[in-house]
Amino acid sequence: WYDPKFTMNFDITKKRRNKVLRRKIVGIADYDNNPDGHPVVIKLETDTDEDYFLGFNRAYGVNSDNKQADNLVTLIKAGSNGLSYSQSWLLATLDQGQSYKFRTWKGMRRRDLIITVNAIDVTKSNPG
Question: Is the pLDDT of residue 32 over 70?
Fold first, then answer.
């Protein structure tokens, strides 16, 4: 996968109740052009073998011939804790202003996890 400095694990615990976490992510095409060290992948830890992963599918460079989800944030569900090959599922593609809601995240009552894409900027060579 990617160098650990360009990945981010996000584990929601009781300490994070009603908290907002804001992160910029960059597409794989900007992996080597990322001086601010923004993550390429954000892993949403579920404490099971199946976790969720956020990425930006920037239609540029090695991804310029995308067939789906150009310049959108993707939400993927995958097994094996994301550490080895496993089946994966594309759950959502999100444009700016769109959200995806997990109800009762990790089985906790009244604990929803909402992912919102605030903005997408593809005008720069490194959109971070």
Answer: yes
